[in-house]
Amino acid sequence: MAKARRTLTGRLLAAAVGLLLAAALSEGLWRLAEPPPTTAPTIRGADGTEVPLSLVATYLGRNDEDRAPTSPSSRLAPNLELRFCYSALERPWLDADGCVSVRTNSLGFRDLEFDATKPAGQRRVLCVGDSFTFGNGVPLEDTWVQRLEGLLEQRWDDVEVINGGFAAGDHRTGGYAPWIASDGLALDPDLVVIGVCLNDLGDVPMALTPPPPEERWLGGISHVLNALQDRRHRREFEATALPDAGVLLDLVPEPWNAARAALTTLRDLCAERDVELLVVVFPMFFRLEEDRYPFHGLHRAVTEFCGTAGIDCIDLYPTFAGQPDRPLWIHPTDQHANPIGQALIAEALLPRVVGALER
């Protein structure tokens, strides 16, 4: 009996040691194989400066006294060269350093060179907006503005679609009107396109991520257990319904009030010049399923206002409804549209832009 007990004890000890060795081996292999943590994207200037990409509007901006001597021009610095850089993951549109190059032309636009004076017979579109229009994280040729120009060139010989992302010196709809009045309309566009990002209307996140677990299993000592816990935590968060962000318009109405006032002003400015106006509402690429998308109220507010105000408007949520969100992102740390999303935006806008240019 005692011998049997010793045999059982030995087997249990051997099994325990085996489990510990297997766990240690698994932990070691996991640590060797796990990707490095992603860090926030940055802007790298030609002078060696590096700042968070979240400060892009401030970094690109400049004071009025620094503007190009010619007018009309953008409020961005002319002939600027920099890179937007991302960590850890490869993307086909990023270079070997995980970066994408950004340049402004001699008039301060993220665009190819063009003449401020519109040539006779040219159809010209001015697209004004924030980072969604500027094209954060994608090469110039992949921005929806450039793709739209390419599509229009299949129909007409001479078309210029100007990328006015950040050109107004403000990154919210409520601040676009002064620059459009002073410089934008002086470019003699046939059509002005206003890109409305939902965070123009308030402090609206592009995506929501769950906070880290309050307590780590085994105090967080195991990377394997941390990964399993994070996966479970994300699943629980994904199953949680989120309130509609439209409530922000009542809680903090100032940005929405400013946006409505600016759009009304732009409607009148364009009408005085016989220029077409089109408002484009970009979705956030987060939980795009119809019953889970938490931004319907913001889309509805903009489209209903434009309808009442007599402003032509297109809501791009239906273009992306039901699609998985992450395949549309630049990077896990940047939920702007990647080249796939940029192409879909351009294709969705094409019929409305053609219609406006033919009127």
UniProtKB/TrEMBL annotation:
<dbReference type="GO" id="GO:0016788">
    <property type="term" value="F:hydrolase activity, acting on ester bonds"/>
</dbReference>
<dbReference type="InterPro" id="IPR013830">
    <property type="entry name" value="SGNH_hydro"/>
</dbReference>
<dbReference type="Pfam" id="PF13472">
    <property type="entry name" value="Lipase_GDSL_2"/>
</dbReference>
<feature type="domain" description="SGNH hydrolase-type esterase">
    <location>
        <begin position="127"/>
        <end position="342"/>
    </location>
</feature>
<protein>
    <recommendedName>
        <fullName>SGNH hydrolase-type esterase domain-containing protein</fullName>
    </recommendedName>
</protein>
<dbReference type="InterPro" id="IPR036514">
    <property type="entry name" value="SGNH_hydro_sf"/>
</dbReference>
